[in-house]
Design a protein that fits this description.
- By secondary structure, the protein is mainly α.
- The chain has helices at residues 3-25, 28-59.
- 90% of the residues lie in helices and 0% in strands.
- The longest helix is centred in the last third of the chain and has 32 residues, at 28-59.
- InterPro entries: CsbD, UPF0337_stress_rsp, YjbJ_sf.
- It comes from Nonlabens xylanidelens.
- Residues 5-55 form the CsbD-like domain.
């Protein structure tokens, strides 16, 4: 797993915590921020995974 993938997973976890905190405190802004962090994390994780797969493809040859 690459650093970018780990960073993406961390952002997803952090985003979920923010979203839940926003729900508990009825803070729609914090809830939306958490959802945004989760989306950002999924994108980062996908980019990291794609980079790793490309690198592995060329390293194997």
């Amino acid at each position: 797993m690459s650093d970018k993938e780990l960073e993406g997973k961390w952002d997803q976890t952090k985003g979920k915590a923010k979203e839940e905190f926003g729900k508990l405190t009825n803070d729609k802004s914090k809830e939306a921020e958490g959802k945004t962090d989760q989306i950002k994390g999924k994108i980062e994780e996908g980019i990291g995974e794609a980079k790793r797969k490309i690198k592995n493809t060329f390293d194997d040859k």
